Automatic annotation (TrEMBL):
One Pfam entry name: LPG_synthase_C
Keywords in alphabetical order: Cell membrane, Membrane, Transmembrane, Transmembrane helix
NCBIfam families tied to this protein: bifunc_MprF
Membrane topology: Multi-pass membrane protein
Transmembrane segments: 12-39, 45-62, 98-118, 150-169, 181-204, 216-234, 240-258, 270-291, 314-334
Transmembrane among keywords: yes
Domain named Phosphatidylglycerol lysyltransferase C-terminal: residues: 359-645
Protein name per its UniProtKB record: Bifunctional lysylphosphatidylglycerol flippase/synthetase MprF
Species whose genome carries this gene: Paracoccus subflavus
Biological processes annotated in GO: phospholipid homeostasis
Main localization, broad class: membrane
GO terms under cellular component: plasma membrane
Length: 677
């Protein structure tokens, strides 16, 4: 007799836990062994050191400092005997970081480049062992593929910093000293300055690589090859030449990842990149000081030229590096273009309509409301719709359009917002935009869940739909019927809609809203089909339907009913509408957002999730969050998470306040804005 399912699952869980413990113990043991072998004699035994290493690693994790840098080293130095020597321990820790972090990073880049080359060959060597290995690990490589530009930017930044610092250091071998004596002075001086300039250029270009700039890709390739040529001509930095050639070989398979053709200096400098460039300049100054601190300073050092004059050469190189990095930073800061909002013209709205109708997202149609700025890509095949409120530029949804152009316009929007001194925010984005948001460096905050009904399996049959079927039948007995009217709509019909809309607004004691919803406007309603609910010959409710040319998904914008509408009218509208849309071939129907639904503070541990969940559970006095979700749950939808993307991981109170002002703004007194790239 086989054991019960519960016991089998428990045994599987124990086996998985034991495997994870063994892997973790092996990782800590081998990591500790690496550092232990680098430390000088006189320290504790290996088992004692493993305990010290584990405690230092845990402290680094708890501190939330990236890589535990500083925290880990402090605990190791404090735990080891003073007789070992702090300088020797620090040297061992530095070597440990290089061996255990930089070497695996370099190997990972080489493997990624080999995988990209294998893909470019379309697996023509499928019979080889390497081909079978790449085929088996392809899902893992594809998962990290979007991070390739960032990883290559890190590699370029490190290469540039290495070249810059190498130009500051005095010769460390007799071969180098002999070369300085043999080569002409102009060659020695010129090659050092050129190496420092190319290193500074690579530091600046790493920002362009992170932004997927095609120009930055080719400039980086050229700078690395030039650096390799200079090192080969010097015949003293052969390892630098080999490393730069390998870096170029790593870059080349990723050519397809760099497709942004915008001007390199159009990218706004973020605080993080500014801090990184300042750290590079500080590193140059630090190395320059400590490498030549024994050389007494004199004004003559700046114009002293000699084959053995290492300190003057280092001073000139350090100045050149600092000037290059500083000038490059200022270029990014001052040359990024400003976008002045302008009223949309007919051409802009027509381009936005074409892009929206070609997408699969019906909410893209909100670009045509006229209350949002429209930022078009250079090719006119992607857009971002946004509004300006407070300190935020709020885009509604993610970029819309062809994938490459959408990514380009997303970067352009973020740069333009930052250039204007505002925070870029993407409001109510779906899962399809999440990868792009991460590439843009945005932080996701869950706003709630959108209820999307799969029309291919929607039916009133079965015990699970008994209540819905009964409500639909009762509405039929009350004389309710639904008709979908195609645009353009005649003035008489629009006048009836207007009467119902005014009655609904007065009953709810609200006014028209904007940004994330439409408003009652004849031009707006004439763009869409309208579902009309009648009781006999009298119109009692209406809703405009939003869909694209793909006819994959349909959603509702305005939903308004008169006071004379019988109970259950809106439930009948949804039910009958979904049945008719299913008959027309639509695959999905969106019931809209359930705000703050689906937040899981116990799992995420985020402050915003705790705050939002508290409002969702106890905020019924000012908004019926739970009631809205319960109503939509009647139709058995799929709950799709939607997010607010902001530049900061802090709770998004200010962006939400800006969004609330934008949504509640009286649009009858507002001048619509548009921007064109």
């Amino acid at each position: 007799m086989p054991p019960p399912q519960g016991i089998t699952n428990f045994r599987s869980l124990l086996g998985l836990l034991a495997t994870q413990l063994l892997i973790s113990l092996g990782d800590i043991t081998f990591s500790a062994l690496t550092l232990y072998l680098l430390l000088p004699a006189g320290g504790p035994g290996f088992l004692t050191f493993v305990a010290i290493f584990a405690a230092a690693t845990m402290a680094g994790v708890v501190s939330h400092v990236p890589g535990g840098v500083g925290v880990f080293e402090t605990i190791v130095i404090a735990a080891l005997p003073a007789s070992v020597g702090v300088d020797k321990i620090a040297a061992a820790l530095l070597l440990y970081r290089l061996i255990y972090f930089l070497v695996p990073f370099a190997l990972a880049l080489i493997l990624m480049a080999a995988f990209e080359s294998w893909r470019a060959l379309d697996g023509r060597t499928r019979d080889s062992g390497i081909s079978r290995l790449f085929a088996a690990t392809e899902p893992a490589f594809r998962a990290i593929e979007p991070a390739a530009p960032i990883l290559l930017a890190i590699m370029t930044f490190g290469s540039g910093l290495w070249m810059s610092l190498s130009a500051l250091l005095p010769p460390v071998s007799q071969t180098t000293e002999a070369a300085e004596a043999l080569f002409p002075l102009a060659f020695v001086e010129g090659s050092t300055l050129l190496t420092s300039a190319l290193g500074a250029l690579l530091i600046i270009l790493s920002l362009g690589l992170a932004r997927r700039s095609l120009g930055a890709f080719w400039l980086t390739t050229g700078a690395m090859l030039a650096g390799a040529v200079v090192a080969l001509l010097q015949r003293t930095e052969m390892e630098q030449a080999v490393t730069l050639i390998i870096a170029v070989l790593i870059l080349m398979p990723f050519r397809g990842a760099f497709h942004r053709r915008s001007v390199l200096t159009h990218g706004a400098m973020t605080p993080g990149w500014a801090a990184l460039l300042l750290a590079a300049i500080f590193s140059v100054g630090f190395v320059l000081f400590y490498a030549h601190k024994s050389t007494p300073y004199a004004h003559e050092l700046w114009w002293q030229f000699a084959s053995d004059a290492n300190a003057p050469r280092a001073l000139r190189s350090g100045l050149l590096i600092s000037l290059f990095i500083g000038a490059g930073s200022l270029l990014f800061l001052l040359r990024a273009p400003r976008f002045q909002p302008q009223p949309p013209d007919a051409e802009t709205l027509e381009a936005a309509r074409r892009i929206a109708m070609a997408s699969d997202q019906p909410d893209a149609g909100f670009a045509l409301t006229g209350d949002k700025a429209i930022m078009l890509s250079d090719g006119g095949d992607a857009l971002v719709m946004f509004g300006v409120s407070g300190g935020s530029w709020l885009a509604y949804g993610g970029p819309v359009g062809e994938a490459v152009a959408a990514e380009e316009i997303g970067f352009t929007f973020v740069d333009a917002a930052r250039r204007a001194g505002a925070r870029p925010v993407f409001y109510e984005i779906g899962p399809e935009s999440v990868p792009l948001m991460l590439e843009l460096g945005m932080v996701l905050h869950k706003m709630g869940e959108k209820a999307v009904v799969d029309l291919t399996r929607f039916t009133l049959d079965g015990a699970a739909r008994k209540k819905l079927r009964a409500a639909h039948a009762r509405a039929g007995r009350d004389g309710l019927s639904l008709e979908i009217v195609s645009p353009p709509h005649d003035d008489g019909l629009l006048s009836q809609f207007h009467r119902i809309s005014d009655e609904w607004l007065a009953a709810k004691n609200v006014r028209e809203k904007g940004f994330s919803v439409g408003r009652f406007d004849r031009d707006w309603l004439n763009r869409w089909p309208i579902a009309v609910v009648r009781q006999g010959d009298r119109m009692v409710a209406f809703a405009n339907l939003m869909a694209t040319d793909s006819r994959e998904t349909c959603s509702i914008d305005l939903m308004r009913h008169s006071g004379a509408a019988p109970g259950g009218t809106m439930e009948f509208l949804f039910t009958e509408l979904m049945l008719q849309l299913k008959a027309q071939g639509f695959a999905r129907f969106s019931l809209g957002m359930a705000p703050l639904s689906g937040l899981a503070p116990n799992r995420s541990g985020r402050l915003w999730d705790r705050f939002g969940n508290l409002i969702y559970r106890h905020g019924g006095n000012f908004y019926n969050f739970e009631g809205l979700r319960a109503f939509k749950a009647k139709f058995d939808p799929d709950w799709v998470p939607h997010y607010l993307a902001t530049p900061s991981g802090l709770p998004p109170l200010m962006p939400l306040a800006d969004a609330a002002r934008l949504i509640g703004r009286d649009r009858s007194r507002q001048t619509p804005n548009a921007a064109r790239v």
